[in-house]
Amino acid sequence: MPLTTTVIGSFPKPKYLQTPDWFRTQNYIKDYNSYAAQDIAEREALVEKATSEAITLQCSIGVDIVTDGEMRRENYVHYFCRHLDGIDFENLTTKSSRGGAWVADLPTITSDIRLKGHGWMASEWKAAQAMTERPVKATLPGPMTIINSIADDFYHDDEKLGSLLAGLLNQEILALAAAGCKYIQVDAPVLVRFPDAALHHGIEHLSKCFSGVPDDVTRCIHICCGYPLYLDQQDYIKADPDAYLKIASKLDSSGFDHISIEDAHRHNDLELFHKFKQSKVVLGVLKIASSQIETVQQVKQRLEEVLTVLPADRLIVAPDCGLGFLSEKQALEKLSVMGSRFYPL
């Protein structure tokens, strides 16, 4: 049997889709405020077209577990935050995030946060799932990553806020499960920026996100090491290379079915894979911050190295992270390499 393949989340948005996002403009938050006020029906029609095209592309290449390409989102964090009361998207606060890798004007928590509605993610997922017979994975941001991507002018207690966010995320995740979604992914890259906080409370909050989820739903978490500011940037700040090693054992024992990690941009020490004794590892084999196209032989060689440690039934193939910085042509060429189907020896 070939190794299972999946993607992480975002796809390059087609030119006709005017969704402002952080891959296109530094002013994506303010620009999205104006975009969201435009005609809903016209915007939805274009989003559905772009979503269908992204899903069709993934299926044509042979990706086993697909996503909707996140065509509605300005980024994977703030789109979810727009569905919460208590967060101000008009009066922004300048903040340094990701351990200093990113400085931006961010939305601000100004009062108690709560869901504006319930089940909106399930509705979006059902629309995407209706476009294909292959399973569509739903993606949400994790508590620590949300906290690091907004400014808090109300709680001033990350642990308390993280637990509250985990409860809100859990409501949407349970609605997704009830709607029939079998693959639910929580994106938590900030865990490797702050591994001590991850061990103290961050991983516990991730587990809380999936509380009560039925056993037939695959609990996925994605933890990459950071995006550049632009494609082919060479000097951007990434998480410490030892961060995965610090948190791997606790992640593995916390009930997650799939643990998605970055490996193409910077190969991990094979010792890391010894720490995953229960979970399946979703291994990044494509660089999402580089326009250079990997070869089938390069990917195959790395998979064979990892398979000396992990059994084939616990290894899944994916890009390092979302593909939003790439052009449509580059994304297609990279995924075509991954879609060559890799068989364990």
Automatic annotation (TrEMBL):
Keywords, sorted A to Z: Metal-binding, Zinc
Domain Cobalamin-independent methionine synthase MetE C-terminal/archaeal: 4-338
Cofactors, names only: Zn(2+)
Protein's UniProt keywords contain Zinc: yes
Keyword Isomerase appears in the UniProt entry: no
Molecular-function annotations in GO: 5-methyltetrahydropteroyltriglutamate-homocysteine S-methyltransferase activity; zinc ion binding
PANTHER family according to UniProt: 5-METHYLTETRAHYDROPTEROYLTRIGLUTAMATE--HOMOCYSTEINE METHYLTRANSFERASE
InterPro entries, sorted: Met_Synth_C/arc (IPR002629), UROD/MetE-like_sf (IPR038071)
GO term, biological process aspect, one: methionine biosynthetic process
Residues annotated as signal peptide: none
Protein name (Swiss-Prot/TrEMBL): Cobalamin-independent methionine synthase MetE C-terminal/archaeal domain-containing protein
